[in-house]
């Protein structure tokens, strides 16, 4: 059983209320996590598959997951990134459903798997949790609406800068004054997130690199100047002056969590901070 929980710790641009578990009181989180079992996933492990019966929902405690969809042509389109405190399968929670997306772990992930019907009955009895589900759905709808608006009104450079600054806010790790986006992303996946082609992403990353704003690497991006990146994302801002990039520090490798399933222990139920970045 879950005995001890810590609050979801806020990061810049990502207050606790924007994550499902962050909207709940400590005691309510304890009760909800006690409904399920802890599951661990290694990098690249599937958590849910598109087309499967959605009878289980997942509450992320640690790590990151990619949400993608397969097109009729067989392409995989990245739709979103989720992190600690997020609820995976909110549509499956509302009504019996098949998974509309593929969910794959990015790194070592710990999640609590709960039967959708069991959590649904809990939500029906608990008004606090019902409001949290409604608030979480509203957040997802706002994010989707914002992406549609930006696709129609913003340039690819602005959309890319907005996505990178959001990822830095939510999943960034500060290293010597710079922010390393702690999610493994390809340029093709970035292209999916901003509704652009991969060559366009390559070109715009080059623009940001030449101005000392970002430092692209293999499946990794380091933000050298986060305020400048945010300014590029805002329409109508003046040109950004070049800055001198700092020396990259090497991050210690984290240990992988072995795959498996177990009852949620007290120490495993601690919600990991979604970011170590601070304003």
UniProtKB/TrEMBL annotation:
Residues 252-279 are annotated as: Disordered. One of its GO terms (cellular component) is cytosol. One of its GO terms (molecular function) is DNA-binding transcription factor activity. Gene3D superfamilies: Jelly Rolls (2.60.120.10). Residues 20-123 form the Cyclic nucleotide-binding domain. Keywords: DNA-binding, Kinase, Transcription, Transcription regulation, Transferase. This is cAMP-binding domain of CRP or a regulatory subunit of cAMP-dependent protein kinases.
